[in-house]
Amino acid sequence: MASTTTTSQHILDHIGGPQNVTSFTHCATRLRFQLADQAKADIEALESDPAVLGVVKQGSTGLQIIMGGGVAEYYQSINALPGMGEKKAAAKDSSKKEYGGVRGKYSWVDYCFEFLSDTFRPVLWALLGASLIITILVLLDTAGVQDFRQEMTEQPPTFQFLHAMWRSVFYFLPIMVGATAARKLGANEWVGAAIPAALFTPEFMGMKESAQEIATNVEGQSAFKTEVFHLPMYISDYGGQVFPPIFAAVFLYFVEKGLKKIIPGAVQMVFVPFFSLLIMIPFTAFVVGPIGLKAGNGIATMLYAINDFSPWVLGIVIPLLYPFLVPLGLHWPLNAIMIVSLNSPAGYDVIQGPMGAWNFACFGVISAVFFLSVKEHNPQMRQVSAGGVFAGLLGGISEPSLYGVLLRYRRSYYRLLPGCFLGGVVAGFFGIKAHAFVFTSVLTVGAMDPIGGYVLAIVVAFATSFFLTFFLDYRTPEEKEAMLAQMEAERADASSAEDERVTALNDTDSAAAAPAAGAAAGAGAAGAAGAAGAAGATATATQAKPVKTALEPGATTQVGAPLAGEVVSLSEVPDPAFAGGALGQGVAIKPSGNTIVAPADATVLAAQKTGHAVGLRLDNGIDLLIHIGIDTVQMGGEGFTVHVERKQKVKAGDTLITFDRQKIHEAGYPDITPIIVTNTKKFASVEGVSGSTVAEGDHILTLTAPSGE
């Protein structure tokens, strides 16, 4: 596809149009659609676009389209398409659940995992940014500059501030999660944020001063007990905890739903949030908060117990599970457990170390695919794999690799899993612990302990999968043969410039009209229907295999006029595509005659049925487009007579087209005729001679070949 806009329209067209979209979001690498009718999505057509790394159906209505790191641009572009903006606004005003009846279409397990995934996905960006700040501080710790784990009151002000930069995300994460969980369920997101926020206020935490310090039942953390409304309330630090706001959001949904049934619609805006806060903040402080703390810390304690029993078991199981959890989106709940573990008394997490083995095995596969694609001169797979390599090694994001290669070529899993296993064995042997939440990339190795053991684990995982993939390939023999055959066919098509340009110039064919308009729009020239045909000619010409000229390096040559008239600059052409030079450099002629002739010996690349344009390749390698009038394609051939056909050899002075200037004027179109060098990029310069009256064959263009050619 030519551009983000073109790809976006392609996607929307092949998922059934905006009328088939019920909701639309995105995450780090994927566009996520909920469709009214999933069957209307054409998976094969969607994957035909090189920008699309993969397509995955989710449940009976969901569709994930993997775009890689530039997903946000495609998201914004699709939202700007007709029908999507209005749908988005309507969705915001709707009081219905965003799931749209998901309880009836998914099992309760699917429902829970989908809810957790969509709760954490919106805060991914903040978590990723904060994790890199943590990495910087950990690296400074490793270099002996400043102890990462030193008490804040003992650290220099500069480092206190640096810690504040990442703690802003993790400490107040419950507020963010409260908002995203409420929004996902269909409750008010700001009320969902306000409920956990109450537990962070100085007033709430200040109650510790008059409370009794106790040995809390939340896994040994310091806590205090006081009385509110003559009931016992536990004052705990909820920073970084995610289960209490999730549970609170679930209860908030049912509270809001019940309140809306009994409160008149005219006053719901005032009294629904009032009673929601009045009910949910005490309920969270008394009940939900302590239970959520207990649940989160209980899961973390279980993982510690498994790790204490046998780090090998945990080290092997985690990296072998992730390749199957990530495609289903089931890995997100483990992120919550990691964060809970880091905020537990132990202060470390045992999942991220083994998880690194999975990630780097994945990055080993995609790196090998990159080298193979370079070796095979495969531009499409080179683009896919390069994006996966950079997103993985530098960002710790595995989705581009997973959806770009692993799920497309299933044999690649046989190269991936051995790396996961061996890397997990090493990780389990060293009992790796993470002291901060990071995305496992080459930039975040300093967050692991011991660093040496972790580095060895990820190197083993990466190298195992890399060499297995490089030497045994990631495709079956049949897949490889089909891919190489397709590449050969594409190269053959590209080398046939005549076929490329004929397709592009044939703007009477409705199949060519859309890419032509797209090319003109990309040049800032949307809206000129006649120019669209020419735009298509040049857009395809520039994508075709470059044509060698017969000129010596640095040599100049002249091109004669194909018709008589007054030569003017392209800037005088009343069409922005021609006038701006987006279609190539050249000149225009205001005709005084009615005949187009060959300016030199040439081959006809394309002769329009409508007669309004002709494409030539001169014997010296110069490609010319002669476009008679502007928007004259709309005349349907009336007033034009074509005297040549495609692939015909012509001599200088041979008649190509005759036209009736009077009929062009009567139809309301200008007869000014651009003469464009469509392979302008092959030349050091293309200079026109304007401001003079010429006869057929008179000099109008001077072209200079590059000196280094």
UniProtKB/TrEMBL annotation:
The PTS EIIA type-1 domain covers which part of the protein? 575-679
Please list the residue ranges annotated as the PTS EIIC type-1 domain: 114-486
Q: Where is the active site?
A: 27
In terms of domain of life, where is this protein from? Bacteria
UniProt record, GO biological process: phosphoenolpyruvate-dependent sugar phosphotransferase system
Extract the Pfam families matched here. Answer: PTS_EIIA_1, PTS_EIIB, PTS_EIIC
Q: Which UniProt keywords apply?
A: Cell membrane, Kinase, Membrane, Phosphotransferase system, Sugar transport, Transferase, Transmembrane, Transmembrane helix, Transport
Where does the record place it? Cell membrane
Q: Which GO terms describe its cellular component?
A: plasma membrane
Stored PANTHER family: PHOSPHOTRANSFERASE SYSTEM TRANSPORT PROTEIN, PTS SYSTEM ARBUTIN-, CELLOBIOSE-, AND SALICIN-SPECIFIC EIIBC COMPONENT-RELATED
Q: Identify this protein by name.
A: Glucose PTS transporter subunit IIA
